[in-house]
Here is the input.
Amino acid sequence: MRRRTMVPAAVLENGGSTHWTDVRDTTMNIIDFELRGEFIPLDALLKATGVAGSGGAAKALVADGQVAVDGERELRKTCKVRAGQEVAVTGVRVRVHAPTMPASFD
Here is the structure.
């Protein structure tokens, strides 16, 4: 069974701008996240994708060693996650992609 939903993907370091991205659920939830800048801190990515319910929860996941970046356990809460990298937490995989459109300067 394949479920398709839309989730907010806010990138906090770029003024809190928000866009929407697809979440496709197969055996493991896979979230495709589009960056709005060069990188996003790991804890902000977990919060923005809804993997963690709050910034504190995101930091706790990382501190507890439950997060891997590109297959390696990551303990730095604000590790810079860039396009092409993949973040995994129990039952969820986040694939980070480069921006498809240039950031707007409103």
Strands lie at 3-8, 20-25, 29-34, 39-41, 67-69, 72-73, 80-82, 86-89, 92-97. The chain has a mean pLDDT of 80. The longest helix spans residues 55-63.
